[in-house]
Task: structure prediction
Amino acid sequence: MATVFNIIGIVVMVAVVVVLIRGLVNMMRGGSANTSNKLMQARVFLQFIALVFILLAVYFTRG
Result:
């Protein structure tokens, strides 16, 4: 079970990196502030989800 949470955690962390890079590219190109805000909100949400799956993986590994 911990392996499943590890894999999901890694996938979500990769998604965080993708959203972060998209936000940086949007900022460098002088894109919409609304888009930057939405990307930041998505990044924070994905970081929370990643943290939850990492904690679940640790819980099931120790248990």
Q: What stands out?
A: The chain has two helices and no strands. The longest helix spans residues 33-62. The CA atoms of residues 28 and 36 lie 11 Å apart.
